[in-house]
Amino acid sequence: MSTVTKSSPADCAVIFPPIHMVGSRSFSLFYSFSFASYVLHKELKNSDVTSLGRIVLPKRESETYLPFLAVKEGIQITVRDMFSPDAWRMRYRFWPNNKSRMYVLENTGDYIKKNGLSCGDVVALYQDEYKQLKYILSRSLMCISFEIITMNNRHKQSS
């Protein structure tokens, strides 16, 4: 089980987000924060939102941007929720898969439940400028679609 701890709220200076592709649809969802840089995002699958409490991470981004894992048990990391004072204790590890690796973030069940996430929702990981603290941002597809419509309407009105 993940552990929730309270910390001071992050200073979230929101800048207009870039467009990222999720599946075959384009969503305007990943915000840029003055204190954190984008690492990866994942559209949640059924296996990510079960009671097992683990999210399978994209391999390429995990190997490029997250710490190297020497042993499969991985490392314990604290992940701060970008929009609340909560911090979640999760485990970043890998499973051997033939001659390759599958990367997972474990102990995510409480985070998934608290944020009401389900299949099709998106989570993104960010890290601070020292590559120490990890931050998580989640958005449901309903919220994302609304943001795109709102931003598109603003763009048309200002043109």
Automatic annotation (TrEMBL):
UniProt keyword Transcription regulation, yes or no: yes
Keywords, comma-separated and alphabetical? DNA-binding, Nucleus, Transcription, Transcription regulation
Write out the GO MF terms.
Answer: DNA binding; DNA-binding transcription factor activity
Principal subcellular localisation of the protein: nucleus
Q: Name one Pfam family in it.
A: B3
From what superkingdom does this record's organism come? Eukaryota
Keyword Nucleus among record annotations: yes
- InterPro entries, sorted: B3_DNA-bd, DNA-bd_pseudobarrel_sf, LEC2-like
Q: Which residue ranges does the record assign to the TF-B3 domain? A: 40-140
Q: Spell out the coiled coil positions from the record.
A: none
Cited SMART domains: B3
Q: Where in the cell is the protein located?
A: Nucleus
In the UniProt record, which is one GO cellular component term? nucleus
Instruction: Give the PANTHER family listed for this entry.
Output: B3 DOMAIN-CONTAINING TRANSCRIPTION FACTOR ABI3, B3 DOMAIN-CONTAINING TRANSCRIPTION FACTOR LEC2
This chain belongs to which protein, by name? TF-B3 domain-containing protein
Q: Which organism is it from?
A: Spirodela intermedia (Intermediate duckweed)
The organism that produces this protein has a lineage beginning with: Eukaryota, Viridiplantae, Streptophyta, Embryophyta, Tracheophyta
